[in-house]
């Protein structure tokens, strides 16, 4: 296995994890804004 392929394989997982984290954070921020607008607690 070449070094370039191994590098891409190893770095693929942090990129996927970062993408999932961004999606979750965007949803949370959207929920916080809606709750604040409606005057209800988040928890």
Short synopsis of the structure:
With 43 residues, this protein is mainly α. The chain has one helix at 3-38.
Strand-helix topology:
Elements: H1 3-38
- The Cα radius of gyration reads 18 Å
**What letter string, H or E per element, gives the SSE order?**
H
Q: Uncertain runs with pLDDT below 50, 5 residues or more?
A: none
Tell me roughly what share of residues is in helical segments: over 70%
Number of helices: 1
User: What is the number of beta strands?
Assistant: 0
Provide the structure class: mainly alpha
Quote the beta fraction. under 5%
Globular, elongated, flat, extended or rod-shaped: what is the shape? Answer: rod-shaped
Largest sheet: none
Oligomer: single chain
Mean pLDDT: 94
N- and C-termini, Cα separation: 49 Å
Keywords:
mainly alpha; 84% helix; rod-shaped
Structural commentary:
This protein has 1 helix and no strands. The chain has 43 residues and is mostly helical. The longest helix is centred in the middle third of the chain and has 36 residues, at 3-38. It is rod-shaped and about 55 Å long. The chain starts with a helix and ends in a 5-residue tail after the last helix.
């Amino acid at each position: 296995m070449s070094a370039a392929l191994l590098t891409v394989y190893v770095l693929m997982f942090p990129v996927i994890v970062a993408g999932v984290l961004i999606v979750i954070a965007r949803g949370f921020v959207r929920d916080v804004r809606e709750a604040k607008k409606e005057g209800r607690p988040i928890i």
